[in-house]
Design brief:
Layout (H helix, E strand, L loop, with lengths): L5 E9 L11 E11 L5 E12 L4 E7 L7 E2 L4 E10 L3 E12 L4 E12 L6
Antiparallel strand pairs: 1-2, 2-6, 3-4, 3-5, 3-7, 7-8
């Protein structure tokens, strides 16, 4: 029986050199690994993000592919990319999904688990 599944893992980083806290601009990168943990080759077609800052300001982003790619992943293969976002607050979160189509035409969504964007703790 065919299984359709992508596993998504995320690493985040705050970029102080690109941020301007006095102008409420906090820049983060996120590195994502997408692994085809299913049994059928599938292609990532599009993405949908919900980005929320600490003031509960929500921004939704939809688009084709990721960083200009629509990777086709064989079972066991993975694709990694790094992208970024800017928030008006020092903390926020992102959650979303990838819309995927398997070789056999089956359509499915790969959930992107919610992750936190936050300034590293500083000691005074």
């Amino acid at each position: 029986m065919a299984q359709y599944e992508f596993a998504v893992t995320v690493r985040t980083q705050y970029l102080p050199e690109q941020s301007d806290p006095e102008r409420t601009n906090f820049v983060f990168t996120y590195s994502i690994t997408i692994k085809n943990t299913g049994t059928v080759a599938a292609q990532l077609i599009s993405r949908h993000w919900v980005i929320t800052d600490a003031n509960n300001h929500i921004e939704e982003v939809r688009g084709l592919g990721v960083v200009g790619h629509q990777p086709l992943l064989q079972p066991g293969e993975q694709f990694e990319y790094t992208s970024g976002t800017a928030l008006r607050t020092p903390q926020g979160s992102m959650v979303g999904e990838y819309f995927c189509v398997a070789e056999d035409g089956h359509q499915f969504e790969a959930k992107i688990p919610e992750f936190v964007l936050s300034l590293p703790r500083t000691l005074h």
